[in-house]
Amino acid sequence: MTPRQIEFQDKCVAFAVEVVNLEKILTQQKKEYSMSDQLKRCSTSIGANYSEAVYAESDIDFVHKMGIAQKETNETLYWLKVLYKTNYIDNETYNALYGEANELMKVITSSIISVKKRLKQIS
User: I want to staple 40 with a disulfide (CB 3.0 to 4.6 A). Which of 23, 59, 91, 123 is the partner?
Assistant: First the structure.
């Protein structure tokens, strides 16, 4: 892996850790299990799919795996919004996590676009 890939993977891991810690608070203190579990699943899946994409067998495989990471990021944004609107998470937590997820989404989307452009140039 390149230093840039390691840096992004570290961001994915740090984000997942933040969400896992939030999920612990939501389940232990607020007794909220369903939405927090959904959030944990999709947010931890972002980095897992990115890790798979890094070692993709082809550019097409890379785009596919990054597409999954993109979908998981979008779902993460959805669950954060629902948890905020139902008052399970406060404004500060929401803004911080939503901002981080949005940054992950920008990098993922940019990577997909770049590889798709390269694929078009080849064909």
Answer: 23
Burial class of residue 1 (count of CB atoms within 10 Å of its CB; 0-12, 13-18, 19+): exposed
- Taking only the tens place, the pLDDT of each residue in 41-78 is 999 999 999 999 999 999 999 999 999 999 999 999 99
Model pTM greater than 0.70?
yes
Cα Rg for the chain, rounded, in angstroms? 16
Distance, in Å, from the CA atom of 90 to the CA atom of 88, rounded to the nearest integer, reads 7
Of the candidates 6, 85, 80, which has an alpha carbon nearest to the alpha carbon of residue 50? 6
CA distance 123 to 77: 35
CB atoms within 10 A of CB 90: 10
Report the alpha-carbon distance of residue 121 to residue 18 in Å, rounded. Answer: 39
Measured between alpha carbons, how far is 122 from 42 in angstroms, rounded to an integer? Answer: 33
The topology (CATH level 3) of 3-122 is de novo design (two linked rop proteins) (1.20.1440)
